[in-house]
Sequence to fold (479 residues):
Amino acid sequence: MSNNSNLSEIEMGRQTSRNCNPENENESEDPKNKTKQNTVIDAVWGEIDLNDGSSPNYRNLGWIKASVLEVKTQIGLGVLGLPAALNVLGFVPGILCILAIAIIITWSDYVVGTFKMNHPEVYTVSDVGYIMFGPWGREILGFAYLLEVVATGGASFLSISVAFNAITDHATCSVVWAIIGAVVVGLLSSIQTLGKISWLGWVGLVSILSAVITLMIGLGTSGKPSLAPAGNDWQIETKAITSPSFVEAINAVCIIIFAYAGTPNFFNIVGEMKNPKDFTKSVLVGQTAITTIYLVVAAVVYHYAGQYIASPALGSAGVVLKKVCYGLALPGLAVGGTLFMHVAAKYIFVRVLRNSRHLAKNTPTHYIAWYGSVVLVCTVGFIIAEAIPFFNDLLSLIGALLATVICIQMESFMWMWDNIRSPSRGTTSWNLLMAMNILFFILGWFLMIAGTYGSVVTINDNFKSGDVGSAFSCADNSS
Fold:
């Protein structure tokens, strides 16, 4: 019983007085104690001094700020591909897919919190892999996680280049705009803690929401999408149910999965919360908000643009509104990339310095490791974005190959790992939850295999047809 108590205290960032000594380090503290406490002992970060400035405060994130970060890690790029997914699937299947994936991912997010409570030493996906599968699991899952968040952050560079091209009428090479995006995101990503970076979540959220609201109003009042042919010989078609090919349908589903692919970042969020027990509350608020936004934006934009929907969707409402929408969205696109590149750099940073005094102290080694990690992930993300320079296909590939494993299969297995020997084993609720997680696990593998196949086929066809620019192309990617 004593050991369980100590683990709980470590997990919650057991606070002790700065002058405590090794003899009483494991003594329980009275939660009603009013004495000023300024040292946090954390299972990941070790001892963090909150007052003397010698260490960043990695445990200063409240649940409201956590909710905002959870929403912003998802809403940036994903929402811009959802109307096109509805165009492929149709209204009814598209809405049902959004709701189904929302339920699955919300469960996965919840499991992240419970797993962290049971294993306070966890900070990233690689830690989960080590607990369940040993060193090999740590490296394999860690690599998949790192590739997913870096690729997603890199996709923001692509969207930033699209935005600049739209605003400036392709004033310079698209690669130059992507480089500018990478530099801006890199500078913002170098802010060391999620607590300090959380205000950017508000900026990004307002930015993206204002852009999509302007888009919806513009489409509703202009009456003609930008991709509609000249003249009057055109008509918007919106269908309740469509008949897509298997490749088209699975790619659309994977775009929706990508829209919810913020789950791996939630390990970092719960790991830097003041009170990890509030994580479930933040997830419920965040996922309710994000799903509501997704449903409204996808349905309204598809209703008014129909088959003439652009991707990213911000280019759907005419030349002038296209500039306005991308101008409003630019901060949000940069913030979305910032959050993903920050957690990617934090993963490398923690792996390199874990169990050393440099991890939570402002030493030269600390700064070299941190800024070096930021430069590395931004460089790799830029290369990925320029190698696959078309928006929908990049989102679909990330959603299929990486997001399924990190956001569905892994969390299902995490729940089974923690509950296979549960005292409630054999009860009706346990049996139902076990069956549900097995179903999610199998479904995730199907979506991964089928979705990757569909994405590769589509990317190959696009390169062959010449309908899209080549890798590292200077061509206008906003038209």
